[in-house]
# Entry
Amino acid sequence: MEEELILSASDFEEDRYSRLRLIPWWDQERLKNATIMVVGAGAIGNELIKNLSLLGIGKILVFDMDSIENTNLTRSVLYRRADVGRYKAEVAAERAMEMNPDVKAKAFISNIIDDLGLGVYRRMDVVLGGLDNREARLSINQSCYKVNKPWIDGAIEALNGFARVFVPGQGACYECTMTETDWMLINKRKSCALLTHQQMAEGKIPTTPTSSSVIAGIQVQEMLKLLHSDRGLPTLAGKGYVFNGLTHDSYVVEYQEKPDCMSHDIYENIREMPWSVRSTTLREILETVRADLGERAVVDFDRDIATGAKCSCGVTADLFTPVHKLKGHMLTCPKCGKQMTFDSIHTLNGMEDFLDKTPAEIGIPPLHIIGGRVGMRMNHYEFTGDVPEVFEGLMEETK
# Structure
């Protein structure tokens, strides 16, 4: 009689991701090869990054400009008391790699509205947002749509929260969901569930680690389904998941797509150029665009650039910065103290007297994409020469 074979758990060789691979549609290689951007490293961002690291996402880019405060320690699993005063993005990236050595993470202490090139978005598989203001959400939405990339928005207040998925061409985008009140709050620079910046500074944003865990979990689950898009899994594209932590009710809402939405602009004909924003001149760019499109072609930027200021007393000053970044003191006359007026451009036509400047010197971020236009004909050009700078330490090869 043959001896009965009894196998124990130790007879099976399991790697870190073995239990994940038991899911029928799971492809761990996709996660290993994925590049995910996380914007915001607060309560939601911590949970997003934790989940991405546990899942073995290959590359994680973490964007946040703020430093860790004591109040973050009750809601942020990645931060410790000794981290107070350090940049959130840096600590979060470090902890992600400590948690899983298979992960590469990089911190960016950057303002995503002005300092993040579209070419960075173009190399993402999915963008995850853990933000507290509408202006930043709108910027992410417009950028993702231009390069045809999905993003997933999350927000919390007290025990409540929501997660929304926006995929170009699949229903509503973030701007489609905005109301007159949202636009009013953007204009007044208010954020986070009707709370003003003054209230934020007073520490009055009510959030909990439990609600951030719930919402970030939904966001990452939706990301997983998007990464496995060929599996036919249902997603929340154009929809939102709403969670009421008081009653544990939850429901899904479907947003109406606005056919005239200004965010629905996908860039076509993107050419990868060896240019760098730090070394290529505006003159060289204009010459290349005109070689492609003809002598009447112009260069278009996706932002207004303040070039100079002048005062009624005769004082002038160079600015060369995006209008969005102008501060009051920059427009205060150093001689008489009056408010100066400023000139701005968003197009180069060859008549400018600063064509020997580089794009970086007028506020264009690394790996950005600009336009070349003649009439209705438009090409787009990426500063692909900036890839090594942006992705240094993250990847040997980029997509």
Observations:
- Confidence is low (pLDDT under 50) at residues 7-12, 190-203.
